Amino acid sequence: MEYRKAVFIDKDGTLIPNIPYNVDPEKITLSTKASDGLIKLQNSGFLLIIVTNQSGVAKGLFKEKELEKVRNKIETLCIADNIQLSGFYFCPHHPHGVVHQYAIACKCRKPSEGLLLKAAKDLTIDLTKSWMIGDILNDVEAGNRAGCRSILLNNGNETEWKNGNYREPAYIARNIPEAAEYILNTSNYGKYNSKDLLVAH
After folding, report:
1. b/e for 106-145, b at 16 or more Cβ within 10 A?
2. 163 Cβ contact list (under 8 Å, min separation 6)
3. Continuous segment of H or E residues that includes residue 140
4. What does the alpha-carbon distance between residue 147 and residue 131 come to, in Å, rounded to a whole number?
5. At CB < 8 A and 24+ separation, what contacts does 147-152 make?
6. DSSP letter string over 60-99?
């Protein structure tokens, strides 16, 4: 069995600008220059997979089925830039939700690693050769817990800055192209080590 490598990408605030609880496709755009980085990763053999918390379902703000049109819009935008997404995994749960069936403490809501583990099983992914990119430390933790290396996009969306196990990113970048450059340089030059814990200026 041949295992593949992937880059897991958070949706809101990372792949697309963050509009809280938005499911209107007309308001969805890709983040500035995101496609430039994604194309380079794709051309280097990485699968591109969205992993996203969607607690709006549990909170009764929108129906789970409405996420299908969100996925379709993002895929359409990516295809227009010659980018192929390999998966769209979301968690609809929240322990304090108001919709009973979704109001649970699950194993898929980031910072838990469940979404990444499911994608890895579905798509035969080697998590040790894979990466997570997200705009908050919960994304970093989810990636690290899954066995990936993680990159934090420091674009102002992390507000808590809570330290802890698994919450140290391998790199802090300003945007997806910069994250992609680091991933490709690190992958090309071999084994990761603690000296690679750099911060972008």
Report:
1. bebbbbbbbbbbebbeeeebebebbbbbbbbbbbbbbbbb
2. none
3. helix 137-146
4. 9
5. 148/8, 148/116, 149/186, 149/192, 151/179, 151/182, 151/183
6. TSS-GGGHHHHHHHHHHHHHHTT----EEEEE---TT-SS
Query: Residue 102 in 3-state DSSP?
Result: helix
- How many Å apart are CA 4 and CA 102, to the nearest integer? 32
Is it the case that residue 197 has pLDDT exceeding 90?
no
Split at pLDDT 50, 70, 90, the class of 188 is low
Residue type, 23: V
* Residue corresponding to tokens 């994250």: 179
Whole-angstrom Cα distance, residue 153 to residue 17? 12
Q: Is the pTM of this model over 0.90?
A: yes
The one-letter code for the residue type at 59 is K
Q: What CA–CA distances, in Å, run from 86 to 59, 71, 96, 138, 197?
A: 28, 12, 31, 22, 28
Query: What distance in Å separates the CA atoms of residue 91 and residue 200, rounded to the nearest whole number?
Result: 30
The contacts of residue 27 (CB under 8 Å, 6+ apart) are 19
